[in-house]
Amino acid sequence: MTVYVLRRLTQALLVLFVTSGLVFGGLYLVGDPVEILVNPQADQEERARTAAALGLDRPALEQYGIFLKGVFTGDLGKSFVFGRPALEVILERMPATLELAFLAMVISVGLGIPLGLYAGLRPHSFGAKTIMAGSILGFSLPTFWVGLLLIMVFAVQLGWLPSTGRGPTTEFLGVQVSILTWEGLRYALLPSLNLALFKLSLIIRLTRAQVREQSLLDYIRFARAKGLQRSRVIGVHLMKNILIPLVTVIGLELGSVIAFAVVTETIFAWPGMGKLVIDSIFQLDRPIVVAYLLVTVFLFILINLAVDLLYSALDPRVRLTEHKG
Amino acid sequence: MTALLQVQGLVTEFAGREGRLRAVDGVGFSLARGEILGLVGESGSGKSVTGFSIMGLVDAPGRIAGGSVKFDGMELVGMTDGELRRLRGKRIAMIFQDPMMTLNPVLSIETQMLESVLAHDAVSRDEARRRAIEALGLVGIASPEARLAQYPHQFSGGMRQRVAIAIALLHRPDLIIADEPTTALDVTVQGQILYEMQRLVRESGAALVWITHDLAVVAGLADRVAVMYAGRIVEQGSTTEVLDAPLHPYTRGLLDSVPAANVSGGRLRQIPGMTPSLAHLPTGCAFRDRCGHADRACAEIPGITLRGSRQVRCHHPL
Amino acid sequence: MSAVLPAALPAPQTPLQRFLEEFFDSRIATLGFVLLAAVVLVALVAPLIAPQNPYDLAKLDLMDSRLAPGEKGIGGATYLLGTDGQGRDMLSAILYGLRVSLYVGVVSGIIALTLGALTGVCAAYAGGRIEQFVMRVVDIQLGFPTILVALILLAVLGKGVDKIIIALVCVQWAYYARTARSAALVERSKEYMEAARGLGLSGTRIVLRHLLPNALPPLIVVATVQVAHAIALEATLSFLGLGLPPTEPSLGLLIANGYEYLMSGKYWISFYPGVALLVTILAINLVGDQLRDVLNPRLAK
Fold first, then answer.
1. CB A198 within 8 Å of CB B80
2. At a CB cut-off of 8 Å and minimum separation 6, what does A196 contact?
3. Interface of B with C in 268-297 (CB under 8 A)
4. Deepest of A171, A224, B189, C170, by most Cβ within 10 A of its Cβ?
């Protein structure tokens, strides 16, 4: 077991290393951040000074070397725009993104599994057909456009919910979280709904497919032949078999949701990592972009690992054969 | 003595692309307490569907379209699912063909056995556990307490089937329907399971319907035999009578095609033609296209001819 | 004994006929197909049917800007879908935008399909270490959300039609590669492959004549999903300001342009391009769904 985890971690580190190199190299070729940060009227001397202050006057490889050294000490460079350590800036904004992603996952799983279950158990009912039609619509709708519509309808026309920004935060486990208050939730509702839409449709379809596939298998019929209550046959026998593949997909989708928050944060002016990185790309604030990348990749790796562990915890066939060998 | 199980004119249909197909077309037989009936037929003959129909486990697009199934005087056809559920597992139990697929792979044996007990009897978990261990012991599984905590994939095929049998016996049912329980097992294991089942059934006094395509199995096990073809029972009677002196050409053909029956070095005898699909059955007797004795009379569906305690569906019984 | 005479069978259908029959069996899929055909047609003839060339700056009149749908402009022309902030006719802009969106989506899809399929199939054929390595790369890339990869690539590459096509190809090829390899694996283990190798058929021939054609059905299914995804992704990226330059606006950019007018109630500038986008993606998905059901053996039983 530990061998497995170690192997995955080394793999992960390799990926991180390669990606950081690629990104660093790529970004280095793009534009000149000095131009953006410096007053256009500034003379050559001032430009040189700014370049030196940012470490941009050194050759590329040396910059990369400094960067690498910094990684091991947790120093990913200083943001050109903010003047603070890039990692610090990213981590500051991370809770906002994570809570949005979390809320979106709660919505999509909390609604998706029951709806998919219903659609799978009664495939020819009107309800099921509506759900499936809705799900196709759900993942054909362009997320950002829906976001705009949501703002237009709920904020501008109806005035029920705020259109942009994040609500007031409270402290939770040392982190600033906004969704623990009603007021905070009001702000988070539209963006997380927007983010959830696509995933919701996906989960509905996946659940339904699983239900249809598993319902035909013999163990369901055997469970009924034993005289078990229908609620138990579905709630225990079917659900446990469905949850296993479902959990893996959901876990992986979490990473995708975190990445896609970039779009939602931009539309709703939500102060998370995503909005930050978009702004940083335009402002050529490379340290932020690189830091963002490393942090998100690291998150994904963690999530992947957690999903693997969860899978082996849920499926006795996997868990026990590992121990045997 | 009234029969424990009385099936009359059972018709089960499936709605499909080619219209409504009758997987079970007018099947009738009766079973007394403690009797073992062998239901024999090729795949597609409707034998498994008969078993499911008795249990009320026919799912859409199939449905029981007619006939009656009387169990201990109660009419099962038309019963609500709730009433049937109370009988299933408790008074009528079923064993399926492939135990790997019938036992839920992600639930422990303990969960699957205890839930069976607790579904029908309001006893404590400890009592249920005790009964499960007892049942496992009954079917010959060593160290049953340890085995309870395990999962189906940790058992061999034969062992899994024993577990399934143990589950079937938990409530000492009056009737057990076994749908090809040994087909998926190795030959040596088959023999063991057959022996165990026979012993257990005799000891508990349960009636048994053993569904199979293998005549040899039936020969050693069953008191009576019913042969099915294309959804109909073509011959019924005591095992010795049917196997020694078959009345229906199909039964004769089946017996002849068993390799052991032939003189070594002689040609293997086969029934000519192929099993027809239910969508393309000939009018009248379903066997006529493959029968050496067929003539114009066979264009009519043969009724049931009685010969003593035996029944046969044929215009020209042997 | 009467001999068994087979009943007269209907004339055998070619696989293509059977496929078409099964495909159009579903009303929804037929609808999707019709929609898709309409969208493609419209996009192709856009320059001919658009009331105005939205990129001919000389023809634009700022006085006409921000007109609501159905209003008449200075010159007397009725703008069916209104105008945007610069006086462009929305209908024309949408038609041209549709063109760009489809172009980018389809071209990137085709290139990614070719590259990915060849990679996957060759990897399956090569086997051993090479296959392991290639598939490892594929898996790693598939572990990254597409939007992240595209974002970073465009940050590096900058704006332009060709750049966004490159980014989209980079994002999609892995999916095709994985599908192609799985399909090829199935074929590879079949006995006739042994025979082919035994006969000394060259690798290229085996790959092209045997492995590739069998990988096609699942690849087609994946392709529909991917093209829809590519179109949506491109729209998203354009919306964010990356990818396409303002001179070649896709539907995404049009929607972005309308963002600032949302608050003042001039919804049409963002709304209608979005509808066009939705219809396109929806049509592709409907067709793709049915393709999957039809091309996948033993599914909807």
1. no
2. A103, A104, A105, A107, A108
3. 272-273, 280, 288-292, 294
4. A224
Complex-level ipTM: 0.85
**Per-residue pLDDT reduced to its tens digit, A279-316:** 888 877 777 887 888 888 888 878 888 888 888 788 88
| Alpha carbon A133 to its chain's center | 26
**DSSP secondary structure letters along A220-250:** HHHHHHTT--HHHIIIIIIHHHHHHHHHHHH
Beta strands B62-71; B74-75: pairing state:
antiparallel
- How far apart (Å, rounded) are the C-alpha atoms in residues A314 and A317? 9
Contact B23, B229 (CB under 8 A): no
CB contact under 8 A, C2 and B294: yes
Look at the alpha carbons of B144, B148, B154, B159 in this order and tell me if their dihedral is positive or negative.
positive
Task: State whether the Cα torsion C55-C59-C65-C66 is positive or negative.
Answer: negative
Tokens 């078993």 correspond to what residue? B51
Compute the distance between CA of residue C41 and CA of residue C33 in angstroms, rounded to an integer: 12
Residue C5 has pLDDT above 50, yes or no: no
Quick one: how far is CA C262 from the chain centroid?
29
Instruction: Tell me the one-letter amino acid at A268.
Output: F
Question: How many beta carbons lie within 10 A of that of residue A83, not counting itself?
Answer: 10
Q: Which of A23, A142, A267 sits opposite C235 (nearest CB)?
A: A142
CA–CA dist B7, B77 (Å, integer): 10
Nearest to A218 among B81, B102, B116 (CB): B102
Name the CA radius of gyration of chain B, rounded.
20
Per-residue model confidence as pLDDT tens digits over B219-262 = 888 899 999 988 889 899 999 888 888 888 888 888 877 766 55
Q: How many CB atoms lie within 10 A of CB B312?
A: 23
- Which helix (H) or strand (E) segment holds residue C99: the answer is helix C90-126
CA-CA distance, B311 to B241, in Å (whole number)?
11
Nearest to B232 by CA among B16, B10, B5, B2: B10
Distance, CA of C283 to CA of C32 (rounded, Å): 4
Cα–Cα distance for residue pair A66/A55, rounded to 1 Å: 10
Name the CA radius of gyration of chain C, rounded: 24
Contact of B78 with chain C, judged by CB distance below 8 Å, is answered with no
Contacts of range A53-58, beta carbons closer than 8 Å, 24 or more positions apart: A54/A78, A54/A80
Sign of CA dihedral C98, C99, C100, C105: positive
Closest chain B C-alpha to A123 CA, distance in angstroms: 12
- Nearest Cα neighbor of B181 from B193, B168, B192 is B193
| Rg of chain A on CA atoms, in Å | 24
Distance CA B120, CA B85 (A): 9
Query: Helical H runs in B99-214?
Result: 99-102, 109-120, 125-138, 144-148, 157-169, 187-204
CA distances to B80, B184, C285, C293 from A213, rounded to whole Å, are 26, 22, 22, 14
Host H or E run for residue B209? strand B207-212
**Closest CA–CA distance from residue A325 to any residue of chain B (Å):** 14
Q: Is the pTM of this model over 0.80?
A: yes
- Residue pair C188/C124 in contact (Cβ under 8 Å)? The answer is yes
Q: Which of A97, A98, A141 is nearest to A268 (CA)?
A: A97
Nearest-angstrom CA–CA distance, A149 and A152: 5
Instruction: Decide if A27 contacts A280 (C-beta within 8 A).
Output: no
DSSP string, B213-240: S-HHHHHHH-SEEEEEETTEEEEEEEHH
Contact B117, B169 (CB under 8 A): no
Taking alpha carbons only, the member of C233, C112, C129 closest to residue C174 is C112
